[in-house]
């Protein structure tokens, strides 16, 4: 007996397909969990489909955050990540997962979990349909050597090559998808400095070899010049931050750009430098400990990486009080404003390259036939105003696996918005009132 | 121009969370038709990070400093709209480059500076203030 096909037709949308092509008008047909046709859809093929009238809105892939912490709990200090009881922490993590998909993120790469199994449990609950959330690759607690932890209470300590192998084995046994090495300091700690490197080459090599032997990838908190080179030498798959990459490290990244990803976590630097005063960390203090120097140095290096074609992905370490969950798309704005990405390049890095970092480049991150139907219908043009992706109200429809996570109630209840106040308060990309409370 | 309004404030009062954004947005939408010759894109963003003093909005724009205000309510709608217009009309967005409405002058809680991509001649392409004037930034 044939299984009935569930169909959804997005009609008259502006298709931003993440191939690099300019957006073009057309229709997109979804059958069950996949995109079946893009551009022109034969009426017979769309027969029986639920029709979403796009009215020129932008249809694009769901976004990817390459540096996600479901368990970072919007704390105003580092220690707050470790002091939350496990029951509340699980609840918070579930809420984070939902916030990601509410924000248009359908792909997330876990960059460390504050407690052993929170990431793994959330991933499994999402995959089984028990809670809403993005596709997620789960992590465990980050591994640090003695004397090198950023936050002791959320760290898995290991020393020496054998210690690393054992730690990796234990995390693999928990069910993680990747391993996190915390290789350098972080200035906000006051004691662990960004340009200090705590791991040895032998320790990194042992951890990576063991993880890869088990089919797991490795990512690393690597701010110092030496740590970036250590990552590339030892085949760490994803380099986080890379703030102080030197000329040699730059050449190494370029020579290995076919496999290595860099996710700088830019918003952490920007917000910690300029926007944390309300939480007791004024700009003067941030500058004094080195965040201005780090941001300036990182931006210069990241621009050079972009010029050389090294894959940079957005993903901002969100989950502190001044970088709270739900503000993730600000990273795309930083890529445009600070790194010189065009809006198209920023979107490709957050979608098509997101599919690559999720290890599913042939089915995630593009609006193409055969790809999984993880889609956003955006009331606006992200190429004209990348900040539109930060406004959840503009994400009219959010689809994952061919099923709607969010639908735009106004489409069913009201006709197109009248042109009230259209001369004065309007979306930059759409001839309609920008906000209808 | 872009006016960012927090859709979460007050973050630490879950029962009232979101009220500020709805009220300020409605108030600005109501008064905007009385102004002339300007457009403003309102972005209702999840948070602007000024939570301890709730009622947070910011003015922003490409390659301009983002200026954040805290302690606002809907009675500040006229001043906030004026701030958005003045910010849009200036070159850098830095607070000393535009006239901040008096009601908001002591409610700036952060200024976020940006850097433009560098061109090959080393010029970063960012708008420059008048050399005779005050430099932007702290």
Describe the 3D structure.
The complex is a heterodimer of chains A (437) and B (138). By secondary structure, chain A is of the alpha/beta class. Helix content of chain A is 32%, strand content 20%. In chain A, helix 3 (86-102) crosses helix 4 (118-127), helix 5 packs parallel to helix 6 and helix 12 (330-337) packs across helix 13 (343-350). The longest helix of chain A has 18 residues, at 291-308. The termini of chain A are far apart. Chain B has 138 residues and is an alpha+beta fold. Chain B has a single domain, classed as Glutaredoxin. Helices cover 19% and strands 17% of the residues of chain B. Chain B is built from two helices and five strands. Chain B is globular. Mean pLDDT of chain B is 83; it is low at 117-138. Chains A and B meet through helix 9 and helix 11 of A and helix 1, strand 2 and strand 5 of B.
How many separate domains of chain B?
1
Query: What is the CATH C level class of chain B, in words?
Result: Alpha Beta
Largest interface: A-B, 45 and 46 residues
User: What about the largest sheet of chain B?
Assistant: 5 strands, mixed
The Cα radius of gyration of chain B reads 16 Å
Strand content of chain A: 15-25%
Low-pLDDT runs of 5+ residues of chain A are 413-437
- Distance N to C terminus of chain A: 48 Å
Strand content of chain B: 15-25%
